[in-house]
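Researcher: For the annotation table, I need structure tokens for NXPE C-terminal domain-containing protein. Please keep the output clean. Sequence:
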Amino acid sequence: MDSSIVKVGPSGYYYQGVWQALGGTTVRQFNASAISQCLKGKVVHMCGDSTVRQFFEFLNAALPGLKEFDLHSQRLAGPFMALDYANNILVKFRFHAPPIQSPPVLTNMLRYIANEIDDLIGGTDTVVVFGIWAHFATYPMQIYIRRLKSIHRAVVRLLDRAPGTVVIIRTGTPRDVTLIYNDWHSLQCYKVLRTMFKGLNVHLIDAWEMVLAHHLPHNVHPPPPIVGNMINVLLSYTCPQMGG
């Protein structure tokens, strides 16, 4: 992310259903073959809430060679793991630690994102993707800021020991509004996250703008057309010279 002052505004637009980013990395289109080529020899660590789990599910469905292991995990929380043996691709997902607003989850299945990042060796064969926001919607902003600070410190340590590691952050999004959720709080989380990580060598999937600009109704879990565009952004950061 650029170290300049964070400004909230349009970061792109859709043309014929395809996300066109304004400035920064060119977003390329990846078919199944190109995805496999991009991720070949890489380990993708995904951490966060169910909106990041959507990325794991998308790749698992899109890549015929990617086979999920049955870890006998809880259906919503994981952890999950999938391997493409032929292309040496490993994709993992783990849910973040509390607060969690969902059905009961075994606590031994949960880990703080900062701890997960600290356990990584890192390197050019490592991609870290995380997103954390949805389950903080009913908590004071100070709680969210404190969590982001710990993740920020872990990311700094990771990039110090392995500068070639690709770190990608998924922002929050507008969501279906209910009595206990509203977009005002989500927007504050979005602004705080962008401010917290500015100046670091990390990449941002601006999910907020990608949902806001799309014609489909807002949902905490964006529909497949939007998730597919987010995956293209993720892969464009991972393999900026590729596309297909």
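Researcher: And a one-line annotation?
Model: The longest helix spans residues 141-161.
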